[in-house]
Every structure is written in C-alpha cells, then in structure tokens.
Amino acid sequence: MKTLLTKELGAKSGTFTLGGDLSVHRLGFGAMQQTGKGVWGEPSDRHEAIAVLRRVVELGITFIDTADSYGPGVSERLIAEALHPYPRGLVIATKAGLQRPGPGEWVPDGRPEHLREACEGSLRRLKLERIDLYQLHRIDPKVPLQDQIGTFLDLQREGKLRHIGLSEVSVDELKAVRRMTPVASVQNLYNLTNRGAEAVLDYCVRENIGFIPWFPLATGGLAKPGGPLARVAEKLGAAPAQVALAWLLGKSPVMLPIPGTSKVDHLESNAQAALLQLDAATMKELERLAI
Fold it and tell me: CA neighbours within 13 Å on the CB side: how many for 172?
C-alpha cells in the first residue's frame, strides 16, 4: 500500500458534517490511551504522549475525542498542553457522566450538579470557551433522563457547548433524547467483530447522525498470523489494523472511527487506513468475520 504522512492524509478518509455545521475528516483520534494504566493517572511516557497529539494534527486529523474521566482529567490537560492554541478546523469532543473511583472503575453519574461541574472542568482543562461536541458518556438510570439532557441544554443555552452527543445508547434511548433536542453523534461499541450496535448504526445512517465506534480496533485473534483478517491484509499489502479501519470507513458514510494509541509509529500506521479502498468483494468477505 502506498504511504502518505503529510497533512493531506486526514482528508483522504472523507468528511462528515456533525450537527449540520461542523465538518471533520472521518478518521479521527481517540485520546483515552494518553493516560496511565487503567485509564488512570499520567502516561508512562509523557513526551511520547505529547508527540502523538502533535502528530495527529500534522497528519491532517481534525477530530479528537476525549472525556473528563480519562485520567481523570489527564487526557484533556495533555491535549491543551500539546495543541493550544488550537489550529483552525480542529474539533475536540469530550464527554461527561462517569465518575472514576479508581483505575479501571467507571460509575455513571448523571446528576445535574455533576454534569455542570464536569463541563466547567473540561472547559478549564481544554482552555476552551465552548466545547464543539459534548457527549453524555452514559445515561444514568438513577437520574431522570430529562434532568440529564436538560442540564446539557442549559449549558448549550449558556454558550458552553455547541452540539450534543450520546454514548452507549439504544435506538429507543436515542429517539427519546431526540424528542428533547437534536443529537449530532452517537458513540457506541462497534468494530469488525462486535456489531451489537448495528440497529443504532442503521438509525444513524437514516437520520444522518455521526456514528463514532469506540474500540474500533478489536482485531484480536482475527489478526493473528494465518488468521482471516491477516490473510486479507497480506493480500492487500496492508496491516490488519488498517484493514479493520478501512472496513469501518467503507461500512457507512456517517462512520467516524477514533483509533487511539500512545505511540507515534502506531498513529502513523493507523492513519494510513485512509488510503485503503476496499472493493465490494473484500467488504463482503470481511462482513463474514463477525463473531
């Protein structure tokens, strides 16, 4: 496969317009791995973490996804340290709605006071006056949905966020929120081997809502030497991860994969998935790999 490591690379993945007015290149970057083990604390190699974030922009990637709970707070601070003042056209999406009692622990918290405090913290750490895409990390079943979305709407009216997104929702939950407000994006678990969110993706396609698949590189055993994904990748002269990302990009025009990494070389390899065009036969072959 040919190589391109310049600012033109990001555009090769195509573009999508979030919320009707926020254009991003479709292959983005997930900043969760810019933290320590268990998504907790500082990264083991801070210099490399900063280098990765700066390389993201150099490669023409215009969409970075993070959350207040990554670290907590660490990922957002690193993004600002590496990239502020932000280049024109860069969209930073973040999330609120999860508490972090410790490494590897995630507890939903949709109380209005927590969501407001989380937004203020994200604005401060990211050095932003307004968050372009603010996502409810999880719907908290202990708090009325209208209170959670109502807080987001209050923050939007105050000019602290531009567009509202959701994460890990069903079609019914998405419809319920859309009765209260437009939804610019949905971020659900989805990859080559886990397509449990297929119904949500189909709904997003129909309604032109951005679909952000988290954990997009669950290549696992499929990528082992001699495995089905590895065979396809070898035939195409590409890395298995590049094929998995190219499959996502080819799956739907609303798909916005956000592969993350803590290494510059991995970032550069993943980004080159934008150059890989899969024909219909290869797409169909990969479709059969779902577990």
Answer: 0
